[in-house]
Hints:
The complex is a heterotetramer, with 2 copies of chain A and 2 copies of chain C. Chain A is an alpha/beta fold. Helices cover 38% and strands 17% of the residues of chain A. In chain A, strand 8 (203-207), helix 8 (219-222) and strand 9 (226-230) form a beta-alpha-beta unit. The longest helix of chain A is centred in the N-terminal third of the chain and has 20 residues, at 67-86. Chain C has 6 helices and 4 strands. In chain C, strand 2 and strand 3 (63-71) form a beta hairpin. The N and C termini of chain C lie far apart (34 Å). Classes of the chains: A alpha/beta, C alpha+beta. Chains in contact: A-B, A-C, A-D, B-C, B-D. One pyridoxal-5'-phosphate sits between chains A (37, 100-102, 130, 132-133, 178, 182, 207, 209-210, 230, 232, 371) and B (259-260, 283-284).
Amino acid sequence: MTQLKKSDVRLDTECRPDFPALHQDISSHPLVYLDNAASAQQPSTVIDAVAYYQRHDHANVHRGVHTLSYRATEAYEGARDKIQSFINAAKRSEIVLTSGTTESINLVAQSFCRPRLAAGDKILITHLEHHSNIVPWQLLCEQTGAELVVAPINKSGELRTEAFDQLLTDDVRIVAIAHVSNALGTINPVKDIIAKAKSRNIAVLLDGAQSVPHMPVDVQDLGCDFYAFSAHKMFGPTGVGVLFGREAVLDAMPPYQGGGDMILEVSFDGTTYNDLPYKFEAGTPNISGVVGLGAAVDYLRSVGMTRIAQHEQQLLEYMTRRLEGIDGMRLIGTATEKASVQSFLVDDIHPHDLGTILDHQGVAIRTGHHCAMPVMDFYGVAGTARASLALYNNIEDVDRLIEAIAKARHIFG
Amino acid sequence: MTQLKKSDVRLDTECRPDFPALHQDISSHPLVYLDNAASAQQPSTVIDAVAYYQRHDHANVHRGVHTLSYRATEAYEGARDKIQSFINAAKRSEIVLTSGTTESINLVAQSFCRPRLAAGDKILITHLEHHSNIVPWQLLCEQTGAELVVAPINKSGELRTEAFDQLLTDDVRIVAIAHVSNALGTINPVKDIIAKAKSRNIAVLLDGAQSVPHMPVDVQDLGCDFYAFSAHKMFGPTGVGVLFGREAVLDAMPPYQGGGDMILEVSFDGTTYNDLPYKFEAGTPNISGVVGLGAAVDYLRSVGMTRIAQHEQQLLEYMTRRLEGIDGMRLIGTATEKASVQSFLVDDIHPHDLGTILDHQGVAIRTGHHCAMPVMDFYGVAGTARASLALYNNIEDVDRLIEAIAKARHIFG
Amino acid sequence: MNAVDIHSGDDLRDLYRELILDHARSPRHFGKLDDATHTAEGINPLCGDKLRLFVRLDADEKIAAASFEGSGCAISVASASLLTDMIIGLTVTQALDSFAIVTGRLTGSDTDRELDAAIDLGKIKALDGVREFPSRVKCATLAWHALNSAIHGQSTPISTE
Amino acid sequence: MNAVDIHSGDDLRDLYRELILDHARSPRHFGKLDDATHTAEGINPLCGDKLRLFVRLDADEKIAAASFEGSGCAISVASASLLTDMIIGLTVTQALDSFAIVTGRLTGSDTDRELDAAIDLGKIKALDGVREFPSRVKCATLAWHALNSAIHGQSTPISTE
Lengths: 413, 413, 161, 161
Ligand SMILES: Cc1ncc(COP(=O)(O)O)c(C=O)c1O
Ligand SMILES: Cc1ncc(COP(=O)(O)O)c(C=O)c1O
């Protein structure tokens, strides 16, 4: 059996003890968690930071003069600073805290695009997007008469760049594209895309839900206008996400939702909105969730994004090799540049049946369309099985996956 | 010193031990937390339910076949059932989980109202609303040319019902009104208002952020179309809220945000939306927050909403009497029907200075405009000090408040 | 992986019995029924199962023919196949009774012995293994819900999520 | 409440010194300056403080007159009042230096001794008590930020939230 070098890439030995959920049995087998692209587990530091906040520091933020409110505000705004530095945004006002990637993208569709779109304008996405980066644009097109243009992919699951270039015409108002595909693992050539779009003054949104947990991300280096991601995929809590937006762009946008905190003055004669980023944070935010996200950022930085990327890269190669070794295996998503995700089908076992049999052996994978039905249509399948890695996964996890698949083939055999 | 009857209304003795945050010193004084209208503290059962979920059951919901995903889905959907029964909604599909009251109201403004509003149509609110029930309608008016009509209040902070009746004309498309005012404590005559609106076929949204934690709420008995509230004011986590909507009304609305989970099928030729309530829950929801909200509902039911209302009513009466006894006291908000909140000003001490001095004695109150600037304008003040009660507050808390105010008067004296 | 085999063999074998695998591989009455009097679609967004059930009622309210088409996991396909096998020849009332019985059996929510006795479940009992797999119950009941709505003449697709 | 008095008396008394209370009650240079050459508004959404600062620069870039109007808590009003007292007669450079020094002193982020030495802080030191009350620092610095933006000719209201 091929082995990874046991050198400094064995992140898992270092990190696994930090994640309580990994240390449990499922159907009497130690859990192997390979559903990280759907949602990752949390280290104790995140869980404890949230609980500590609730036990000691909770109050509403921003408008309070009393001690707890001050502490809550410091904790909340302190997390924003951590996020800013984590993705290297130029200013803290560029970090808008949302409820997740989905809300971040909807915010851009409604606040940035909707007021400036005319019938016939185009929005350019790709065929490999997550529903969260499709449906908000479809809704927007219905509302405005704009047209959704979809750049095609090839059989490996890679963007067809020559076709993309042709679709990138001057009537495109925004390019919205996944940094990393959740169904296929493809890493898109986003720097190229941004350069081409910028040369035509077209705005670019990157859906970073699947990149931020797995590789270093530097929004200034990328040069995109918007970058959206979710805390729960990067070892933080659910219900929290981030929209990075360039200050000049955010400044020119009307608010998304109305409510407390996003205003400076409200009167029935007229209301003035608050400064960035508060203009986009209406209502009481997910304070404890943001505190948890701050702790998750601390955790990721302490491990180091480059080491994480290396570890996962090697593990992905190992997993791909092992999967390829199985008779009747069909890998879906075989791009040259890939991260942390492998979709597949075995024989004609329905992925859902496969998922059940694997779960019965303690191996958690996701099965189905992965919120990327157009990708499934492209490959002519109803769904796939998907194993997705995180920093805590290891060779043993992959071996358990392979053995469990063998058992499924045996049952269906 | 007047005393409450020590009978079964001493809820606080029963409940206080359950709330860890209450048992700490602030500036070397035991904390007196009177900022509940801004955000309430959480019982251990809520904090522990969230942490337990994170340690044992976390995965993404709805689309997973593996055990953790199943457990997470059960926990999430189980909380929805609890909420349904708590507010007595007819169906679980009427319970839409949102990020808070603010998002709930924005959802109604954008999905229910926006597609059906024409220039000149009216939206009727009142002068005592929270910014969350003003600004979404102002944004909507800008977007559609509709007109925001504001029903006046009287000096006690009560809705002027005869004026309201005159404003309730047939061109009103929705009445949006607080069940209980967060700045003044006024309980609005919502059953009357709903009856009048219904007789003209006008939709009604109630902002229940300040009612759900303090009194029994039965949405079927009320007969409103929408009811919005936030978990963090009812002893649950931040970042979670509820929109109750009548099934027939929700059914006829287009989705609010696009993304995962709110669809049945996505293709570039057209997308079909999911059933209720999922149509309105795009993206990964705040799973742990919803689990916490479920635990908060369990907590409230175990204590009993009628007992809570009685306890707070008696404590509010006591607090009002004690405040009235202070020289230079000006009570803001003196409606006959009130709940759990008292705003006030003392001498010409700026509320913010008062807040600091009280905090220094361990007494946490909120000061400022309470996200209700039009109310402040109405009374001609820049802000007020506000003490707001919850089930765990007691006579000693009120006594500490009174003493702390005396100290402030002494300093400014 | 001996531990796995020893421990988990039974539940899984119970779920994926030969009869189930057989019906999944070679579904009976598969295809469109051109002269159907009733039809309904069932969708299970969880696994992407999607099937359409066809029923032809004859003059005396008996099910003269039944078929289904679509795709899904082994459990939902086998369940649909077993369903068509079973309901042909039943009266509408018996078919609705069997809907109630089967869904009740599988969800554990309803075990009306009286009904149970009245109708011969036959091979449908092969689905019982699904009870140990709560996340799969919806696969097993999908076709039955479609049957119910087909008979009641509902036209929108029903979803078991 | 003896405990309160014994323990917390000092910090609070330090914050609300007589000088501060005096300036809060009877602010100096209060009102509009009709011939102002520079003006800016400061808003602190936290407590609803809102004030407008007026400055008149004479030909040789000295501050010939300064005033403010608006409303706010004792700390922000006293701070504005002390500010106007202090800056009249300073050069623009000195005024900007004192902005840097005062905000630095109060936030603890910047304690440039050199600057400190060059300018006589005088009564401004009465604001030092605010350092023990981090949530109030923004009240104390509000007028100073308004001064800074007035001189730099910014026209949108500045907010210290
Ligand atoms: C009456 C009222 N409505 C709406 C809100 C907004 O709630 P949230 O900030 O949780 O969205 C609040 C609380 O601040 C409130 O008191
Ligand atoms: C690529 C991608 N985009 C968007 C999303 C949506 O994220 P969320 O559900 O957290 O809003 C996901 C995760 O499901 C994703 O993988």
